[in-house]
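User: For a teaching handout, I'd like to show students what a predicted protein-ligand complex looks like in token form. I'll give you the sequence and the SMILES for pyridoxal-5'-phosphate. Please answer with just the structure.
Assistant: Understood, here is the input followed by the structure.
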Amino acid sequence: MTAPSASTPLAESLAKVRQRLNDALSAAGRPTTDARLLAVSKTKPAALIREAWHLGQREFGENYVQEGLAKQVELADLDDIVWHFIGPLQSNKTRDVAEHFAWVHSVDREKIARRLNDQRPEGLPPLNVCLQVNISAEPSKSGASLAELPELAGAVLEMPQLRLRGLMAIPAPGENMDAQREPFARLKEALRALQDRFPEAPLDTLSMGMTNDLEAAILEEATLVRVGTAIFGERESPR
Ligand SMILES: *Cc1c(COP(=O)(O)O)cnc(C)c1O
């Protein structure tokens, strides 16, 4: 596989997103190393992931377990690729995630955390976990409530095969920058509260911000933005 030339559509869109991220960090007065880019590749073919990898992208997010596993098989030669699971997680899929991903962003209840901990193979480093928060308190959306966080975080911190890294949220769409920042600010405060409560915990991650709101998320101290559309283009059919 030869490295693609710098003029492919993906090379251009990835460069634009990197520029957006750098500009947002500068505008927030933060160093450009302060946040990283997770490329959300759900519904997109393994060949595009490979191309992004050749362009220096290393972290990829998948939402559907079977789809993610199939791509991992195709891309098994890319040894330093880092796979994040970011979709809703049912009990019957925890084993595949525990065995094949480095991160999971969507843990929202103790039962799922317990299964991931029990199923994480001994030979692998602990699974990096973010707790998903239903920050806009939308009925029928995934995520723990803010009130549930201290107990859930305390439980996860007792699980040796999990490493609690932080919080993730997908807020309801905001119409302008102020409206977008508000839920991100609350997630930031929730992470601070956990850091105060569990000072020994490795809580260093705020997973927030997507194609339409990454600037707002960076202003509220996101450390990892999850971008799909702006990198890989529109998805064909939202599943
Ligand atoms: C699809 C998805 C993204 C990426 O969204 P875009 O708007 O395409 O950037 C980010 N996070 C999660 C959890 C997603 O499901």
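For the handout, you might add this sentence: Residues 40, 42, 63, 86, 170, 210-212, 226-230 surround pyridoxal-5'-phosphate (CB under 6 Å).
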